[in-house]
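ARCHIVE CARD
CATEGORY: sequence design from structure
SOURCE FIELD: tokenized fold
FIELD CONTENT:
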């Protein structure tokens, strides 16, 4: 059955290849020149997030308190209206408690307690600064996490290409089943590299650090993106079985037209949820959600505009040999 859509994606494949190639090249250059801003999950160190009950002080004022308890070279980042995140070298528990006490003493509200008591007002000066998060990770754990991340991605890629080759085993012409898997992996590399490139720039200009949630987001992107690509490939597989002997590029184009609206709508609904989490989920989920938004958007693009056109290019190249 012919599709009512006519997006001509295969015909203009050189445009999509140019856009993807430019984005991937820019991401690689950004990573090579600037590099990711590694967080304490990888470098080791401590992170303290506090919430001020009244007015958030300036970065300089907080830095003075840090220096007074022996913490140097700290990175201080305001979060939302009343919170502040401090990152610095790893500290022991004694220094941690010393820091919280110093913050309490320095930034407690200046109130007329005697007057408030006479007026019957109860003033809580002990909770002027509340700690909402404390992480401390040694450098050895950071190195271990890096190695496990690399192995997790390698294993995931091998599993994906094996599964796709098995799922498409009944479709061997004009493209062998394992080539579907290989192109799906190329599309995944495209998605991951661009996501890393964007985070490289965000780290450079906005101080966004790469931590464990970013790794989790990359692995999630792998799963989502390949699923979206397989949905598109699966329609091509069905049409190849039904229309044996017809032009391969035409079959791929019509398969894309049949699934493109559903694919975009599915990605759009996921992005709505992710944007909602980004807006109301707080700073803890921010990096994870932001990486997912980038990865899902890029993955949806590559599933439609990169993976299937690559199939056609490969088939044309093989037919000329």
């Amino acid at each position: 059955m012919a599709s009512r859509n006519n997006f001509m994606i295969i015909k203009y494949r050189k445009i999509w290849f140019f856009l993807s190639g430019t984005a991937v090249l820019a991401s690689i250059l950004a990573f090579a020149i600037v590099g990711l801003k590694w967080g304490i999950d990888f470098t080791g160190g401590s992170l303290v997030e506090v919430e001020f009950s009244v007015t958030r002080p300036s970065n300089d004022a907080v830095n003075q308190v840090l220096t007074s308890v022996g913490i140097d070279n700290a990175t201080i980042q305001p979060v939302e209206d009343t919170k502040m995140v401090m990152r610095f070298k790893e500290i022991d528990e004694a220094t941690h408690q010393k820091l919280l006490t110093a913050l309490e003493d320095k930034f407690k509200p200046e109130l007329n307690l005697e007057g408030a008591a006479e007026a019957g007002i109860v003033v809580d000066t002990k909770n002027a600064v509340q700690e909402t998060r404390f992480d401390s990770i040694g450098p050895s754990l950071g190195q271990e996490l890096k190695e496990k991340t690399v192995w997790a991605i390698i294993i995931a890629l091998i599993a994906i290409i094996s599964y796709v080759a098995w799922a498409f085993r009944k479709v061997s012409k004009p493209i062998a089943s394992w080539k579907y898997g290989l192109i799906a992996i190329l599309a995944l590399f495209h998605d991951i590299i661009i996501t890393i490139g964007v985070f490289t720039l965000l780290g450079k200009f906005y101080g966004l650090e790469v931590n464990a949630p970013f790794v989790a987001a990359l692995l999630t992107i792998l799963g989502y993106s390949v699923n979206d690509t397989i949905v598109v490939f699966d329609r091509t597989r069905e049409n190849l079985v039904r229309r044996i002997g017809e032009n391969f590029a035409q079959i791929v184009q019509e398969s894309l037209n049949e699934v493109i609206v559903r694919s975009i709508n599915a990605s759009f609904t996921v992005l709505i949820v992710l944007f909602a989490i980004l807006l109301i989920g707080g700073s803890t989920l921010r990096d994870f959600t932001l990486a997912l938004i980038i990865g899902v958007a890029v993955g949806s693009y590559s599933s439609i505009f990169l993976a299937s056109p690559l199939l056609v290019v490969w088939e044309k190249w093989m037919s000329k040999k």
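CARD ANNOTATION: Strands lie at 45-52, 75-79, 83-88, 129-137. The CA atoms of residues 173 and 240 lie 8 Å apart.
SHELF: design records, drawer C
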